[in-house]
Write a structure and sequence with these properties.
single chain, 117 residues, mainly alpha, Arc Repressor Mutant, subunit A, 3 strands, 55% helix, globular
Length: 117
């Protein structure tokens, strides 16, 4: 898998995409509804940015009924995985990244429950 550094940095320069990626680095997989809840953005906005990250190859998705779940692509080149891990280490205690994780942790009706709200 080839990811150009310029494409990766361009993708991560948008706050919504960076916040989603940092949340996904902390979880095996998240539903779109979890990401929208955590960052407080509208579902179409988040979905559009997730689609861009998927097209780049940074994320992979799977459909489960009406829900689409995203995760970090396990086939990323090591330099990309290292960069994402180092970024997470540096920002996870800072706002808005810590706030996003806290809000997600308090989300009611997370997937696995009968419905995702």
């Amino acid at each position: 898998m080839d990811i150009l550094a310029s494409n990766l940095f361009s993708a991560l320069s948008h706050e919504t995409r960076l916040r989603c990626v940092m949340l996904l680095m902390q979880h095996d997989e998240l539903c779109v509804c979890e990401l929208t809840h955590a960052i407080g953005a509208a579902q179409p906005h988040v979905s559009r940015h997730l689609a861009q990250l998927r097209k780049l190859g940074l994320l992979v998705d799977r459909r489960e009924g009406l829900w689409i779940h995203y995760r970090i692509n396990p086939a990323l080149p090591q330099w990309v995985a290292d960069l994402l891990q180092n970024t997470l280490s540096g920002v996870q205690v800072l706002p808005p990244f810590k706030d996003d994780a806290d809000v997600l942790g308090q989300m009611p009706n997370r997937p696995g429950a009968p419905r995702c709200a």
